[in-house]
Amino acid sequence: MEGVIGIDLGTTNSVVATVRNNRVEVIPDRYGNRLHPSVVAFVPNGDVLVGHSARARRHIDPRNTIYSAKRLIGQSIRNPIVRLALSTLPYQIEEGPNEQPMIVVRGRRYSVPEISAFVLMHLKQCAEQHLGAPVSKAVITVPANFTDSQRQATKQAGQLAGLKVLRILNEPTAAALAYGFGKALNAVLAIYDLGGGTFDVTVLQIRDRIFEVLATGGDSFLGGDDFDRALVNRLAGEFLERTRIDLRTQPEGWAKLQTACEQIKCRLSDDPVVAGTIHDLAVGAGGKSVGLDFEISRQQFESLIEPYVERSVQACREVLAAAGLEPRDLTDLILVGGSTRTPLVRTAIEQQFHRKPQARINPDETVAYGAALQAAALTSGHADPAQFYSLLLDVAPRALGIAVAGGYNETIIERNTPIPVERTRKFITSKDFQTRVDIQVSQGEAKMFADNEKLGTLELHDLEPAKRGETEIEVTFTIDVDGILSVRAIDTKTGRETRATMRVIGAPSPGADTPDADPQHLPRPA
Q1: Which residues contact 423 (CB under 8 A, 6 or more apart)?
Q2: How many whole angstroms from its chain centre is CA 435?
Q3: Which of 121, 175, 140, 103 is closest to 5 using CA atoms?
Q4: Is 329 a catalytic residue?
Q5: DSSP SS3 for 17
Q6: β 36-37/48-50 pair status
Q7: How would you class 392 by CB atoms within 10 Å of its CB: exposed for 0-12, middle for 13-18, buried for 19 or more?
Q8: For this structure, is 384 an active site residue?
Q9: Which of 28, 71, 219, 395 counts the highest number of beta carbons within 10 A?
Q10: Is the peptide bond before 420 cis (omega within 30 degrees of 0)?
Q11: CATH code for 400-525?
Q12: How many other CB atoms are found less than 10 A from the CB of residue 387?
């Protein structure tokens, strides 16, 4: 029988699970490792390594070892936050079609979905070896606040890996499925998910087998990578003061320092002080190898990461307010993601929610566990699919709208609207004898379009020339169960319609780029 899997595709590590004999199994690699590093290494002989063997090459061959791809997937390379991330990565990245980042390795360019597809192929192969059967279907999880382009790019990565993607499932929802499996519950949960590169917080209500998201928020550029970077910058500064060598100009040394700082961070979760030597960071005067003696306390580390932790706490406050709840209204608190093991994170979240987190949840594996349950529920022919079925009522994490005349943003779907959903709004032309309308799509709550995130552009051509305001256009936004947006625009007079030319910024869509919209061709509210 063909296998079906659930995948938590993470920034730092990925996890794959399946349901067999009515039990969830987390699938290891051939060495027994249940956490699979989301790292891809391209070696000189042409082989591609994934997982632990790839991670071992990060400081040996940093220019050809790719990690943290999840922070880039579906993003525009022109996004200022992405530009900041690029400045810390040792491998080469160029701008490709649709502003998508292209990773250059050994003379070849790869899109980010192609890199993620290598990770997914590795997980698929591990599952096939474990199950002794082919695997072609999967549920893949993403952060709740992933944009439409990030979801589309993740789905494409699954398809490139030879998988039929049954569902793109939000990570907090998957964690809630794992929490509620096999129970008749009436509970209100807060799910705090802090991984290597992304952060989500979701408030969710469970009534029997109905899982309803009340509100969600987060930051797709907040996670353990930021903790690592803060520590790397601190120690790189000390190294520069002592040796006059800037490790940013030494890719191998920089990668070695990053690896060391990841280990220091983990040790500081248990030890109040960590001291030691990082050897062979650079070559100094006379060709002598230079290392760094260091000592850092948990208190010093916490002072470095406190701003990042506070950003996550502020998001928690906002999500509780959006749900109309107080901490006392919650039944339980679930922590997800390896970065929640950081003592400062746990302390801050316990103080915010006035409770200890649920102890039985494995923060590394619970998302894949829930994804496997959802995969079983969606697959006909399972031994007992009914016991795995739950009704999931998720929400749109951010408002979606379009640009209108004057540079304003007109919201069509509000933040935290339950999905799937379809909304239609009517607009009119903004100038005389207008023959086209440019529909610029945004994600965000700001009043001005430029202050939101631009998702893409849809063009409706060949309008019949008429006086300003006489031509009416219906714009319909549809979000499916995967959280993926489709947009349709119709000239109500002629019935002319466009829906297939939407260009999603940062997404690896085929064909030439469409030009930026002309402000003269923007619609205005009817």
Answers
A1: 412, 413, 417, 476, 477
A2: 39
A3: 140
A4: no
A5: strand
A6: unpaired
A7: buried
A8: no
A9: 395
A10: yes
A11: 2.60.34.10
A12: 16
Q: How far is the CA of 87 from the CAs of 10, 77, 81, 101, 335, in angstroms? A: 21, 12, 10, 13, 30
> Counting Cβ atoms within 10 Å, is residue 193 exposed (0-12), middle (13-18) or buried (19+)?
buried
Radius of gyration of the chain (CA): 24
Amino acid code (one letter) for 14: S
Burial of 502 (0-12, 13-18, 19+ CB in 10 A): buried
Q: Where are the domains of the chain?
A: 3-222+308-395, 224-303, 400-525
Beta bridge partners of 278: 292
* Cα-based distances in Å from 149 to 68, 75, 288, 293: 17, 7, 48, 44
Please measure the distance between the N-terminal and C-terminal CA atoms of the chain and give it in whole angstroms. 56
pLDDT of 382 = 46
| Rounded distance between C-alpha atoms, residue 94 and residue 176, angstroms | 38
Q: Is 8 one of the annotated active-site residues of the chain?
A: yes
CB atoms within 10 A of CB 52: 14
Characterize the bridge pairing of strands 503-504 and 453-460: antiparallel
Total-model pTM: 0.87
Out of 61, 114, 148, 193, the active site residue is 193
Q: What's the average pLDDT block by block, 10 residues per block, for the chain (526 residues)?
A: 92 96 93 97 96 94 95 91 85 92 95 97 97 96 91 94 96 92 82 95 89 91 94 97 93 93 96 96 89 97 98 96 96 95 97 91 94 88 52 86 90 91 91 85 90 84 84 90 87 78 48 42 55
| Distant-in-sequence, close-in-space partners of 1: CB < 8 Å, separation ≥ 6 | 133
The pLDDT, as a whole number, for residue 524 is: 58
Query: E strand or H helix at 302, and its extent?
Result: helix 298-323
Contact 192, 316 (CB under 8 A): yes
pLDDT > 90: what percent of the chain?
65
Instruction: Return the pLDDT at 459.
Output: 82
Catalytic residue of the set 8, 148, 200, 219:
8
Supply the DSSP string of 317-377, one letter for each residue: HHHHHHHT--GGG-SEEEEESGGGGSHHHHHHHHHHHTSPPPTT--TTTHHHHHHHHHHHH
Q: Read off φ and ψ for residue 154, nearest 5 degrees.
A: -65, -40
Which is the catalytic residue, given 171, 200, 252, 491?
171
Beta bridge partners of 190: 203, 333
Give residues with Cβ within 8 angstroms of 45, minimum separation 6.
Answer: none
Q: Which pair of tokens denotes residue 248? A: 């940013």
193 classed as catalytic: yes
CATH homologous superfamily, domain 224-303: ATPase, substrate binding domain, subdomain 4 (3.90.640.10)
Q: In whole angstroms, give the CA distance from residue 450 to residue 244.
A: 42
